[in-house]
Amino acid sequence: MNNSFSAADLDFQQQVRAFFEIEFTPELRARANDGRDVKGVAVEWQKKLYAKGWVAPGWPKELGGTGWTPVQKFIFETERCNAGAPDVVPFGLKMVAPVIIHFGNDEQKARFLPRILKSEDWWCQGYSEPGSGSDLAALQTKAEKDGDHYVVNGAKIWTTYAQYADWIFCLVRTGNFEKRQQGISFVLIDMKSKGVTVNPIHSIDNHHSLNEVVFDNVRVPVENLIGQEHQGWTYAKALLAHERTSIAEVSNSKRNLAEIIELAKQQTNHKGRLIDDPHFQQRLSDIEIELMALEYMDLRVLASMSAGDTPGPEASLLKIKGTEIQQALQELRMETIGAYSASLRVDEFQNELHREGSSSRKEYMYGRAATIYGGSNEVQRNVIAKAVLGL
């Protein structure tokens, strides 16, 4: 594999760096770090990317994509993380949009894709249910046809940013068959519809990003069905493959690793600087080797997707290793900062180490969910066993 950049790639890298230096302003960075205006910051940032033509690298060029090569996508993602800029919120641009592009009709593409590109609609994902999380095929939310509408009843849970959403893409049961994966359909539901209720869920880090969404006789036009009725499982698998690929977050982990190294240069133990401790160096090296291997695998999948392929079981491998590395880094970062990570709350009188410690602890606590969302890692191992090993 040739892993050196061409002159054109290096020129593109400079363009990307210049964009982040100019557009990701100190004011926007401060608001992003503050975390109290999640939707406002995300929409403002995505509109800047849209104005540049860089908001949807994974889309076909004729529908608003960038037409970037795999190397350019890699460069952009690396520079984004190096700049500390946020990723786009995935539910619209990276999750439901590919399903609409591949399985939706022309009217649906014309209706939804431009608004997703311009960040005019905020989306959330309705997959998991109170009684069916990792066992997604056990979902019970029903959609019964009544003329030119479906009547939807049931509940979805762990729905990220549902409190801000304009639309939710949902898996619903439209029929009962012997095989549970059959009879599931993929529908788009307006969150302003009568009968939709959003109940907040506050996670262990005292953060509100998760919700329960309840549907009580919600009427959904049949025209909001994606593809064919009862074929939603096929579309869901395609979406999850894209989600699991992005969950790997290689560039974010590389940045986190670099920051841990800098922290370790400042921290000391009874032997001296933490960065000079052989045991700490061994832990860093183990993670760095795993991350390097994951990065090359991510590049192979990216190249395959650019050639028109859909990620298969390799998406499960990326999800497993990516989230395990994220958790290893979160644990190591909290240990690196030491006793300062003991508190979740920071006031204006505490110093930067207190703030770093609080941030590290919050990331560690929320990060415990990484090996669960997007399909638990135990389920991903079953996917690999079946698809690759034939078990």
What's the rounded overall pLDDT mean? 89
- Which spans have pLDDT < 50 for at least 5 consecutive residues? none
The total tally of domains equals 3
The structure class reads alpha+beta
**Spatial strand sequence of the major β-sheet:** 1-4-5-8
CATH class division of the largest domain: Mainly Alpha
Compressed to H and E, one letter per element, the order equals HHHHHHEEEEEEEEHHEEHHHH
Q: Name the CATH superfamily assignment of the largest domain.
A: Butyryl-CoA Dehydrogenase, subunit A, domain 3
The helix content, as a percent range, equals 40-55%
Number of strands: 10
Main beta sheet, described? 4 strands, mixed
Explain what this protein looks like in three dimensions.
- The chain has 391 residues and is an alpha+beta fold.
- Helices cover 50% and strands 14% of the residues.
- It has three domains: 7-88, Acyl-CoA dehydrogenase/oxidase, N-terminal domain (Butyryl-Coa Dehydrogenase, subunit A, domain 1); 123-231, Butyryl-CoA Dehydrogenase, subunit A, domain 2; 248-387, Butyryl-CoA Dehydrogenase, subunit A, domain 3.
- The protein has twelve helices and ten strands.
- It has a four-stranded mixed sheet.
- A hairpin with a 2-residue loop joins strand 9 and strand 10 (272-273).
- The mean pLDDT is 89.
